[in-house]
Amino acid sequence: MRPVNIGLLGLGTVGGGTVTVLTRNASEITRRAGRAIQITHAAAQFYDPQRISGLDQIKHIGSDPFAVVNDPDVDIVIELIGGYSPARELVLAAIENGKHVVTANKALIARHGNDIFAAAQAKGVTVAFEAAVAGGIPIIKALREGLAANRIEWIAGIINGTGNFILTAMRDQQRPFAEALAEAQALGYAEADPTFDIEGIDAAHKLTILGSLAFGIPLQFDKTFTEGISKLHAQDVHFAAELGYRIKHLGIARRTAEGIEMRVHPTLIPHRRLIANVDGVMNAVLIKGDAVGPTLYYGAGAGALPTASAVIADVVDIVRALTANPHHRVPHLAFQPGELSDTPVLNIDQIETAYYLRLFALDQPGVMAQIAGIFGEEGISLEAIQQKEPADGDTHVPLIMLTHRVREARMNQAIRRIEALDAVSGAVVRIRMETLAG
Amino acid sequence: MRPVNIGLLGLGTVGGGTVTVLTRNASEITRRAGRAIQITHAAAQFYDPQRISGLDQIKHIGSDPFAVVNDPDVDIVIELIGGYSPARELVLAAIENGKHVVTANKALIARHGNDIFAAAQAKGVTVAFEAAVAGGIPIIKALREGLAANRIEWIAGIINGTGNFILTAMRDQQRPFAEALAEAQALGYAEADPTFDIEGIDAAHKLTILGSLAFGIPLQFDKTFTEGISKLHAQDVHFAAELGYRIKHLGIARRTAEGIEMRVHPTLIPHRRLIANVDGVMNAVLIKGDAVGPTLYYGAGAGALPTASAVIADVVDIVRALTANPHHRVPHLAFQPGELSDTPVLNIDQIETAYYLRLFALDQPGVMAQIAGIFGEEGISLEAIQQKEPADGDTHVPLIMLTHRVREARMNQAIRRIEALDAVSGAVVRIRMETLAG
Description:
2 copies of one chain form a homodimer.
Chain A: E1 4-9, H1 13-24, H2 26-33, E2 37-43, E3 60-62, H3 65-69, E4 76-79, H4 87-96, E5 100-103, H5 106-123, E6 127-128, H6 139-146, E7 152-158, H7 161-172, H8 177-186, H9 195-198, H10 201-215, E8 225-226, H11 234-242, E9 245-255, E10 260-270, E11 282-289, E12 293-300, H12 304-321, E13 352-362, H13 367-378, E14 382-387, E15 396-403, E16 406-407, H14 408-419, E17 424-433
C-alpha cells in the first residue's frame, strides 16, 4: 500500500517538532498505523533548518501554503500556522479539495469550528484537533471516545502552562505577579505579549472545545467567561495556602439544571487534590462522568515534541480509518451532527460557586456584625472568617472570608453592599473556590 | 439503520453495571455512536434482578452462554464472566461466528491473548479489552492511540485498588498489614481469598497487557516478575515516610538496552510525585513517551459503573467502526500483526533499580564499616545510611540504607554476603525504589 502523503503548513515550534518526531519514530509509527507516513510538501514563511532534524526527508519545501492545500498528491494537511487568517481559508480549502486536516489551532476551532466541521462533514473528511488542547495529553480522545458511555457532569482544567508557571512561582517563591511573569518570559514560557495566556483567553479557547465535546453543544467561545491572573495579589496566594488551599487558573465547564457553566478564572482548590499539586508548565484536566466518576489526565501542555505527539496521533487515527465509511468515523464534536443539543450556556451571574473574599475594614466593634448581617440577608452562609493583623499604623485590618456555594448574582449584590459600608475601605477581592470533590 | 445487538455474558458486578449504564445513558450513547445499541440476549448463572436497573430492556435472559455466542442476531459479545474456562471457549466461539468481542478479563487476555487476537485477525473481527486494565480510565486507548507517535520509555502503575487501599491504611493509620487487609475485606474491597490482589498476580495480568501495547511484544505473562505486599512491615512504611517516600505496589514496564523489564513489587517513590498521592482504591498509570514526556492517567480502577464505562466505550468504538475495512482498524496490540517485536523480557536479576534496605546488626564499632565495605566491593553506591534506636534490651539495632541504582543480581550478591556476617541477625529487608522523575 502506498505511503500516506502529508502536507505541512508551518515549520515553527510545533511544525519542527512534528518533522522531528515523524522521522525519528518512523518505524514505530509505521508499525502502528500499518502504512508509511511521509511529508511530501511543506510551506513556511521562515524556519531554521539547523533546529529541525529530518527536514531533508521532505520532498518539497516552499513558502506558499495554498500550493500545499491544492497539491493533488497530498492526502492530509497539517495546519500549524496558528491564528485566524489565512489558517481558516487554508483549512476550508483543504476540506474543499477532499483532504483531511489535523490542526493545533485552538483559537480557530473555538471561533470557527462549527463552520469548519460542517464543511468537513459535508465533504466526508475529518478535521482532528487533539493538539489544540492540553498539548500531548490525549484529552480530546479520552473525552470523545474513552468516556463515551458517560453523561459528563463537569470538567476542571489547568490548560495554560504559562499561567500555571506564574502561579507556581508566586506560591513557591512568594513573588508578586509582575516578577513571576518576567521570569516566565525570560525562560521562554510566556510571549512578549502574554495577554492571551495571563488573561485566560487561550484557556477559554480550549475550554470552549472541551465543553462542546462534553455536553454536545455547538462551540460558543463568546459565551465563555474569562478572568485572568494579572490582578492576583501575592497576599491572597499566601492566605489561601494558610487556609489549606492552592490558587490555580482553572477552566471549568459544568452541567446544571439551568444550563452549562463555561468559565475561566483563578480558583481556590483544597491542597490535597491531585490537581492542586500540578505545577510549572504542566497541564491537567479533571473530568467527572456519571459512570466512571472523577478521572484526571496530566502531562505537558505545550512544547515542540509533546504537541507534535498529539498531531501525529491524529494523523495515525486518520490513516487507520482512511477506508472507513465517513458516516461511521468518530464524529468531530463527539456527538453525531444533527444530534447537538441546544442547552444554553449560562452567563457568569447565573453560576453557583463558593468564594474566598478579602477586604479592608476599620478595626472597630460592630464592623464584623455589619458585614455578617449583609451576608445573612443575602442568604450567603459563611464557612470561615478570619481577621488578620493590621500593618503598623493602619486603621484598617484585612478580613478573610470563605463562603459556601451561592449564585454569583447574590454574591455580586452582597459585595456591592459591603463595599458601600463606611467601615470598608476599597474593593472586596473575590476569588472563586471549588472543592472538586465529586 | 438498525440497532446494534449485544449478547451479554454475565450479570455480576460489571454485567449489572453495564446494563444499568447502557439503559440510563442510552440517549447520550446513541447520539455519540450514531446507532442505537441494545442488549438482545444475556446469559448468567445467577443474578439479582433487584440490583440491576434496565434488566427489563433485555429481550431474552437465559443461563446458557453458548446460546448467546451462537445467536445469529447478536453482533457484539460482551464477556464479563471472568476466569479462563469457559470464558476462553466462549470468546473463541464468538470470534468463529464472526462476532466482535468486548471483555474485562485481564487474566484471559494476559494468558491467552496472543491466540485470541490471532483468531480475531484471521476472522476480521475486533476483540477490545479497555475494561481489563485500570477500570474506567481509558488507558488502553491512550497507550494504543493517543500516544501512537511515541517510543514508550516506561510505564509505572498503581493498577490494583485492593493493594493500594491496604497500603494507604497502613500508612494513614499506621496499621499492620493483616489489620488493613481485614478492613479491606469488611468494606468489600478485597475478596475472601485475596491472593490474586495482594500477591500482585492481578496487577501482573494488567501490566502484561500494558507492556505489550507499549513495546509491541507478544503477551508474556509468565515472564512478569511478581512480589506481593503481604510481607511488608508497618515499620518500613513508617521509615520510608520519614525519609520522604511512600510505598506503593507498582507495576513497572521499562525498555532498556538489554530488553524489557516487567515487574510488580512494593516500591518506594518520592512523596512529591503525584502518583505517590493516589490513595485508597483509585488507580493511576504513569507513561513516559519520548516525545510527550511523562503523562499520568488517574481514576476508579474497579467497581460496577466505572468498569461498565470502559466496556461501553469499547462497544461504541466497535459500532463506529463497523463498516471499516478490518485491515484498517486499530490493531489489537497497537502494532500491526506481523510487526510484533522479539525484544526479550528480562529476568528480575537483570533489572536495574535503587533499593531501600533494612537489617538488624550488633550495635558495635566496625559493623557499619564491614557492611559499607561489602557494598563498596559490589560496586553499590549508598545514598543514605541511618541507624535507628534499638528497642530496650536489644543487642541489635535497625540499620536503614538507601542505595543508588544497581543491577539486581549485584544487590542479591551483596545481600547474601551481608546476611552471612556474624554481626547481622536475620534477613535483610529489601524494597525497590524508583524516582519516576523522567
